[in-house]
Every structure is written in structure tokens, then in C-alpha cells.
């Protein structure tokens, strides 16, 4: 009976040693994953900040574009009103103004219209509401 008890105790001791080694490997793996997660969170924070900066730049550029388009529209309208019918413009100038009125100026100077040069295809990807981050998933009890 004593020998069987000793054998069982030895088997239990070996099992405990294996479990301790498994626990140590799991702790090391957890530390590695947490370090990786922290690095990814830093990258995410930098990316969010960069998106915010780019969104502000884009907004300023669009505001400036609209302002310049309004000025150009006023100049165009003034030219048309004052000089179109008065004969002060040469035939070439009239044809240039006509072409501009029919193409770029006529279409691009509509108030509130954005320039076609700006690619709007990824607008939803850059929207502030799409970039929000909910930390409720991070509220996990840690040892």
C-alpha cells in the first residue's frame, strides 16, 4: 500500500510540474500578446490622429476651393454682364467665355458643388462616425 501511495504521489507531483510549466508558458504568451496589443493600440492612436489631421486639412481645402469658386463666379458674371453685349470683347474673348460658360465654369461654379477632382469614393471610410472606438470591449478583468 505504501508503495502505491508513493507512486501515486510521484505521478501527482509530475502532473503538477507539467501544469506549472504549462502555466508559465501561458503567462509568457499572455505577456507577449499584451505587449503586441499595446503596440497596436499606439499605432491605432497615431492613425486616428493622422486621419483627424487629414480631415481638417481636407475641410480647409474644400472651404478655400468654394471661396475661390465663388470669386471666379463673380468675376465671370461681371465680365458677362458688363462686356458681353457691349462689343468690348473681341470675337476670340467671346468664344473663350462661351466655352467656359458651357463647360467648366457653368458646371463647376454651382454653389455647394464639390470639385470633381476630389475623390469621394472613400468618404464613408473617413467619416468620423465610422472611426469611433468603443472601449467597452476592453473592460476585461485582468490579474
From TrEMBL:
Keywords: Coiled coil. GO terms for biological process: mitotic cytokinesis; mitotic spindle midzone assembly; Rho protein signal transduction. PANTHER family: RAC GTPASE-ACTIVATING PROTEIN 1. This is RGAP1 protein. It comes from Chordeiles acutipennis (Lesser nighthawk). The keyword Coiled coil applies. GO terms for cellular component: centralspindlin complex; cleavage furrow; midbody; nucleus; spindle midzone. GO terms for molecular function: GTPase activator activity. The gene is Racgap1_1. The lineage of its organism: Eukaryota, Metazoa, Chordata, Craniata, Vertebrata. Residues 23-78 form a coiled coil.
Amino acid at each position: 500500500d505504501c508503495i502505491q501511495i508513493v507512486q501515486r504521489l510521484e505521478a501527482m507531483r509530475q502532473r503538477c510540474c507539467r501544469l506549472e510549466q504549462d502555466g508559465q508558458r501561458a503567462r509568457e504568451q499572455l505577456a507577449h500578446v499584451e505587449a503586441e496589443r499595446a503596440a497596436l493600440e499606439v499605432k491605432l492612436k497615431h492613425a486616428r490622429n493622422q486621419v483627424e489631421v487629414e480631415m481638417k486639412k481636407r475641410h480647409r481645402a474644400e472651404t478655400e476651393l468654394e471661396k475661390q469658386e465663388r470669386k471666379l463666379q463673380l468675376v465671370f458674371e461681371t465680365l458677362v454682364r458688363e462686356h458681353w453685349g457691349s462689343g468690348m470683347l473681341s470675337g476670340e474673348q467671346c468664344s473663350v467665355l462661351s466655352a467656359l460658360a458651357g463647360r467648366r465654369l457653368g458646371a463647376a461654379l454651382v454653389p455647394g458643388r464639390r470639385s470633381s477632382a476630389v475623390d469621394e469614393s472613400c468618404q464613408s471610410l473617413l467619416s468620423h462616425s465610422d472611426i469611433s472606438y468603443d472601449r467597452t470591449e476592453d473592460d476585461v478583468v485582468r490579474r
